[in-house]
Amino acid sequence: MSTPSTTDAPVPGLRSPGAGLVTLDPVHTALLRGLDDLLTGLATRLAAPEVLGPPLLPAEGLTRLDYFRNFPHLGVSAGRFHPEALDGLAAGEPPTDLPLRPSGHLLPSATCYGLLLSLEGADVGADGTRLSASGRCFRNETHYDGLRRLWGFHMREVLYLGTREGAAQHLEQGAEFIADLADRLGLALTRAPADDPFYDRGGSRARLMALDPVKHEFSAPDGTAIASVNRHRNFFGERLDISAGPTGPAHSACVAFGVERWVHAMTLAHGTPEQALHRLRDALP
């Protein structure tokens, strides 16, 4: 497992056992849980059933999805202690000095990858399918910054697979939900295109993306992106042989929320975590 190279900025009220890692105090925890409850409203609106994705992703599968071509710096590998290290561990030697062997798996950096890989070879039909999931995600960033940029964080996503038209509608409804929820919570968000690819940066698809962006981010006034709408075209459908009935390879799209970043945005907007929690409770049904 890779080690962060820099320390993160301190956040009042939070405890950090290491760079990019935080323990949320009771107020921040209540904010995170309450916000996640509100974010599930999109899944309810779109009739997307809740599922639980895998805690590890096979490196082989991610390779087929061009993950390492696009994000070589983000991957956090899962390793096992080499059998030769077990005696040292039992004798109390520091584990950092003992050899690891690759497991062939990575910790998820986004919730949707595990869901997509699990649908390989499936036919979602012309009507398509939707899934909602939340999980811990991990990214080996160059730096960390409080709740704005963490090594491990919670990501909630609502995923669609089906037709081109269905994917476009999914993202339109997701963007409307984000705007409505931000208004209820007193958040001023701006929307702008982002440049995260879902395929090889050097290929014709990457050139097409420069003309027709596939990802838009919604950011707080300090520039923190707290949500995104992502159109994958039929990339995952082709790579994973996921079809949408007679229409051919499925198009896919997802709406993603970084939950700790929503906590940060609420505190930024309302002054203190306590005031943010009060505003959140006013917005709950």
Strand order of the largest sheet: 6-7-11-10-9-8
CATH hierarchy: architecture of one domain: 2-Layer Sandwich
**Which structural category do the helix and sheet elements fall into?**
alpha+beta
Shape: flat
What is the element string, with H for helices and E for strands? EEHEHHEHEHEEHEHEEHEHH
Q: Using only CA atoms, what is the Rg?
A: 20 Å
> Which fold does the CATH topology of one domain refer to?
BirA Bifunctional Protein, domain 2
Model regions low in confidence, pLDDT < 50 over at least 5 residues: 1-9, 207-211
CATH class of one domain: Alpha Beta
For the termini, the CA-CA separation is: 42 Å
CATH homologous superfamily of one domain, by name? Bira Bifunctional Protein, Domain 2
| Residue fraction in strands | 15-25%
Q: Helicity, in percent?
A: 25-40%
Mean pLDDT: 88
H/I helix tally: 10
**Total number of strands:** 11
InterPro entries: aa-tRNA-synth_II, aa-tRNA-synth_II/BPL/LPL
Protein name: Aminoacyl-transfer RNA synthetases class-II family profile domain-containing protein
